[in-house]
């Protein structure tokens, strides 16, 4: 814990103009005892002599708090974003507990469509990570956002706005109306920030322009109004 605090403190000391820190606090790899499970059902059976005294949510909160502490020592105004990328493997009760116990000044970022369900060509499919064809939000995201709103905490959404995991090798898929639908629902849930790409899904073009246009007020009153504003400069009447 001391090492993590010192590392983040040193980072912000050496780069004092940083606006904040975003960390994938849950998932992608084993980053703390909250990431460890021991069977195929992803049941948490922790054997760590220290962490086994706490719930999975409490261990994750401690991890967030340690990184946040190092940043706050140097720059109290900086923003910390905790991205729980792999919450799809958690039960609802654990997600709710984490959101309730997370520090009040941390932005909680959740994948918008992850772990959702969508019917395609007569088959029900699982939407893992990011999907354009499935508007979302998933139950997991709604649970996070609604709990955060009840607790007076910030929710951020993670999306892919140009292309997504249906076919990630395509630079962009031109469906700007879907971005309007996603961001409309995000606003209804009280989302205050969005991360709109990762190493793919960030190609310059119509979709990127759509997301930028919709990220700032005034928000168009209808999808038709949005599409007209977006496309008139390109196509005229």
Describe the secondary-structure layout.
Layout: H1 2-14, E1 20-24, H2 56-74, E2 79-83, H3 92-101, E3 106-111, E4 116-120, E5 123-127, H4 139-151, E6 155-158, H5 176-188, E7 193-195, H6 206-214, H7 223-235
Parallel strand pairs: 1-2, 2-3, 3-6, 6-7
Antiparallel strand pairs: 4-5
Structural commentary:
- There is one protein chain.
- The protein is α/β, with parallel strands linked by helices.
- It has 7 helices and 7 strands, in the order H-E-H-E-H-E-E-E-H-E-H-E-H-H.
- The protein has helices at residues 2-14, 56-74, 92-101, 139-151, 176-188, 206-214, 223-235, and strands at 20-24, 79-83, 106-111, 116-120, 123-127, 155-158, 193-195.
- The strands form 2 sheets. The protein has a 5-stranded parallel beta sheet, with helices on one face. The protein has a two-stranded antiparallel sheet with strand order 4-5.
- Strand 2, helix 3 (92-101) and strand 3 form a beta-alpha-beta unit.
- Helix 2 (56-74) runs parallel beside helix 3 (92-101), helix 3 runs parallel beside helix 4 and helix 5 (176-188) runs parallel beside helix 6.
- The longest helix has 19 residues, at 56-74.
- The model has no long low-confidence stretch (mean pLDDT 91).
């Amino acid at each position: 814990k001391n090492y993590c605090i010192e590392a983040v403190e040193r980072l912000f000391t050496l780069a004092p103009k940083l606006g904040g820190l975003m960390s994938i606090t849950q998932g992608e790899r084993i980053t703390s005892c909250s990431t460890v499970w021991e069977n195929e059902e992803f049941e948490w059976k922790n054997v760590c002599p220290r962490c086994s005294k706490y719930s999975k949510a409490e261990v994750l909160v401690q991890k967030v708090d340690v990184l946040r502490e190092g940043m706050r020592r140097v720059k109290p105004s900086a923003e910390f974003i905790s991205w729980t990328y792999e919450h799809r493997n958690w039960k609802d009760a654990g997600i709710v507990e984490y959101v309730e116990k997370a520090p009040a000044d941390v932005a909680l970022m959740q994948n918008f469509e992850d772990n959702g369900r969508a019917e395609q060509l007569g088959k029900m499919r699982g939407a893992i990570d990011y999907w354009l064809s499935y508007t979302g939000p998933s139950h997991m995201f709604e649970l996070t956002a609604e709990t955060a709103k009840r607790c007076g905490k910030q929710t951020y959404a993670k999306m892919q706005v140009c292309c997504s995991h249906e076919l990630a090798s395509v630079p962009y898929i031109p469906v700007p109306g879907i971005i309007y639908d996603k961001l409309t629902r995000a606003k209804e849930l009280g989302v205050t920030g969005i991360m709109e790409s990762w190493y793919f899904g960030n190609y310059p073009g119509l979709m990127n322009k759509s997301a930028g246009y919709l990220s700032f007020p005034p928000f168009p009153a209808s999808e038709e109004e949005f599409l007209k504003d977006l496309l008139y400069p390109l196509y005229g009447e």
